[in-house]
Design brief:
The structure is a single chain. The chain is α/β, with parallel strands linked by helices and 246 residues long. Helices cover 31% and strands 26% of the residues. It is built from 8 helices and 15 strands. Strands 1, 2, 3, 4, 5 and 8 form a 6-stranded mixed sheet that branches. Strands 11-10-9-14-15 form a 5-stranded mixed sheet, with helices on one face. Strand 10 and strand 11 form a beta hairpin. Helix 1 crosses helix 2. It is globular. The chain starts with a strand and ends in a 7-residue tail after the last helix.
Length: 246
């Protein structure tokens, strides 16, 4: 079964056809820059551009940087506020002519890791933390997703966690890996005290740099790099079309 997976991020929108039974991309990713501001029509046109690039006619799954309820956009952390209250499923179907399923972007990445990556077969509580423009989270208990956790917005030292420890903050403040990891470790410690996970998987754009900061993380739970790396969002978005209940 093949589905077009699309990952909508704060800086880029990328997609590729996915074999959802094997969790594999069937072609090179096609990427466009996220428009600034990321308004409804402009983002929808980018999604349509990806669909057109692949001459796609089937189903699409879209990972979106927001809490999602029944296709409706509830929050707007790294996109334009005009999205709040919009039914993204309807918008994308109108712009692409394809049946669409919308899921939180971190939840999408988590689906990929639980089914095909570092979390496959792991029992207990697994938290996937995606680190890029912001911080996203997905929580699974014995493989069952609790959607829309949005724990990147937890307050740490008077600021939202993603405003202290995202990769964007690291780059903008020109923090060394050690200094940034101290901030990130503090955030993970907070998560551990709240949820006592059996594993934490680090995904998102920063997953490829895991070895540069892993030695500075000191929490009790095992912390591992996402195996699907930056393809997780695309694969998980496609896979989510098989889970319409989320």
């Amino acid at each position: 079964m093949t589905v077009l997976g699309i990952d909508i991020g704060g800086t880029g929108i990328k997609g590729a056809p996915v074999d959802v039974e094997k969790g594999e991309l069937l072609s090179e990713r096609f990427r466009v820059l996220t428009p600034q501001p990321a308004t409804v029509d402009d983002v929808a046109e980018c999604v349509a551009q990806i669909v057109k690039h692949f001459s796609w006619k089937g189903r699409i799954g879209c990972g979106f940087p927001s809490a999602i309820k029944h296709g409706m956009i509830m929050t707007a952390a790294n996109i334009d506020d005009s999205w709040i209250g919009v039914n993204a499923k309807t918008v994308f179907e109108l712009h692409t002519g394809c049946k669409a399923h919308i899921i939180n972007d971190a939840d999408a990445a988590g689906w990929a890791e639980i089914h095909f990556g570092a979390g496959r077969g792991v029992q207990g509580v697994v938290i996937c933390v995606t680190v890029g423009t912001g911080i996203g989270t997905a929580i699974f208990s014995n493989g069952v997703l609790l959607p829309n956790t949005e724990l990147g917005h937890l307050m740490v030292r008077g600021k939202e966690a993603e405003h202290r420890a995202s990769d964007r903050v690291r780059r903008e403040k020109e923090l060394s890996w050690k200094k940034w990891a101290k901030r990130f470790n503090e955030y993970l410690t907070y998560l551990e005290k709240l949820f006592w996970p059996d594993m934490i998987i680090i995904g998102g754009g920063l997953s490829k740099d895991f070895v540069k900061f892993a030695s500075h993380l000191t929490i009790q739970a095992p912390v591992v790099a996402a195996e699907m790396l930056n393809e997780a969002g695309i694969i998980g978005a496609a896979l989510s079309t098989l889970h319409p209940e989320v």
